[in-house]
Design a protein that fits this description.
This protein is of the alpha/beta class. 36% of the residues lie in helices and 22% in strands. Strands 1, 2, 3, 4, 5, 14 and 15 form a 7-stranded mixed beta sheet that branches. It has a 4-stranded parallel beta sheet with strand order 6-7-8-9. α5 packs parallel to α6 (185-202) and α6 (185-202) packs parallel to α7 (220-232). The longest helix is centred in the middle third of the chain and has 18 residues, at 185-202. The protein is globular. Bound molecules: 3-[(4S)-2,5-dioxoimidazolidin-4-yl]propanoic acid (DI6) and fe (iii) ion. Residues 101-102, 105, 175, 212, 240, 243, 288, 317-320 line the site of 3-[(4S)-2,5-dioxoimidazolidin-4-yl]propanoic acid.
């Protein structure tokens, strides 16, 4: 068989669901053709291959390219000053009530044009790419008007054209109530349902729809309206659920067959069971947990027992998770949430792909999937979870390149 590129003499954590744990293959071989994996498995079982380029992996470990399935990467300004106020004792809620918080980022996002949003997001994107990330979800949610939400989604799409990375976009119009609707939240939900979702869907700018279901965000009834509009326009949904309190958002998301419910610190057993039945992925965000000094842990043991797939993401955003490292996310998930090494690695590969509805496309080293690889200078995969602040990436391959 002919192929374009071949990596031999590699050790692989394939994350293939047919194999236990990390799906380890020692003395592995990966062949790529047309940007896809033609073969990934033991060198001894490989078909006869004729490669245009053959690369000696020198025994390095290869994992699927990392996936960040929940980010707010596109926004204007920053919130370092707010961080200093918090360090001086102000609470997140106090800052929000005094016009700071999400609304200060909204103002900075509205005055930025698309090119400025792209250029300020690029260093964050590049930091993730430098650690082997090959697929990223990017939400809108800081524009909070029709024009500014669409501008943010266009910026996200542009990021996927200027870097070798797969970008999937999510419309998060229902992130916060903009000041011009302060007295009329239902009218803002109308705008999300009747203007933003149809416009984003018809322009092909959104791959999914998200909402912030929370006391300081949108109620379950309002979230339901957003989900119904998304369904009417053929867009899958996901939800910021049970981050600060329990509004039974995860169960609502499951009712709509959501791809994922995210955060989940306050998730209860009924929510766990609803997610298990619907096949909704639990996307856990240890960076936000850490940065807001949350003390309530997501119910990892209950999710594990119910076999709810667990994904991990940075939640990269200026307010509660200014984080651009999936390696650190894995370390935090292990240390703070007591997840195992295979769970952490699956969380930023196989399960992250599933959380984006891309499980058939990427997330494992299996024939037929896109050839997205991260090649590491480590002695064992656990090092990727164990270290803090060291980047052992040797090379990154996106779509076979
Ligand atoms: N949950 C969060 O943690 C962020 N958004 C959300 O829905 C916070 C966003 C911010 O403070 O800018
Ligand atoms: Fe978020």
């Amino acid at each position: 068989m002919r192929c374009e590129r071949l990596w031999r003499n590699v050790r692989m954590a394939t994350l293939a669901p047919t194999l236990p744990g990390l799906g380890i293959v020692e003395d592995g071989l990966i062949a790529a053709r047309g940007g896809r994996i033609l073969y990934a498995g033991p060198a001894g079982e490989a078909p006869a291959l004729e490669a245009e380029e053959s690369i000696d992996g020198e025994g390095r470990w290869v994992t699927p390219g990392l996936i960040d399935p929940h980010t707010h990467l596109v926004y204007g300004g920053d919130r370092a000053q707010e961080f200093e106020r918090r360090l001086a004792g102000a609470s997140y809620e106090e800052i929000a009530l005094s016009g700071g918080g999400i609304l200060s980022t909204m103002r900075a996002t509205r005055v930025a044009d698309e090119a400025a949003l792209v250029s300020t997001a690029l260093p964050r994107l590049d930091a993730l790419i430098a650690e082997g990330m090959t697929t990223i979800e990017i939400k809108s949610g800081y524009g909070l008007s029709l024009a500014d939400e669409l501008k943010s989604l266009r910026a996200a799409r542009t990021l996927g054209r200027v870097r070798p990375v797969s970008v999937t976009t999510t419309l998060l119009g229902a992130h916060a109530l903009p000041p011009e609707f302060a007295d009329n939240p239902e009218q803002y939900v109308d705008l999300v349902c009747d203007a933003m979702i149809p416009a984003a869907a018809s322009a092909g700018l959104a791959d999914a729809v998200d909402a912030f279901c929370e006391g300081i965000g949108f109620s379950a009834a309002q979230t339901r309206r957003v989900f119904e509009a998304a369904r009417a326009h053929g867009l899958p949904v996901k939800l910021h659920a049970e981050q600060l309190s329990n509004l039974n958002g995860a169960a609502l998301a499951a009712e709509f067959g959501a791809l994922s419910a995210d955060h989940l610190e306050y998730l209860d057993e009924a929510g766990v069971q609803a997610m298990a039945r619907a096949g909704t992925v639990a996307t856990l965000l240890p960076g936000a947990f850490y940065f807001v000094r949350e003390t309530r842990l997501p119910p990892v043991e209950a999710l594990r027992a119910a076999r709810v797939p667990m994904a991990l993401a940075t939640d990269c955003n200026p307010g509660t998770s200014p984080l651009t490292s999936l390696l650190l996310v894995m370390n935090m998930a292990a240390t703070l949430f007591r997840m195992t090494v295979p769970e952490c690695l699956a969380g930023v590969t196989r399960e992250a792909a599933r959380a984006l509805g891309m499980g058939a496309e990427t997330g494992t080293l299996e024939a037929g999937k896109r050839c997205d690889l991260a090649i590491w200078d480590v002695e064992r995969p656990a090092e990727l979870v164990y270290r803090m602040g060291l980047n052992p990436l040797h090379a990154r391959v996106w779509s076979g390149q």
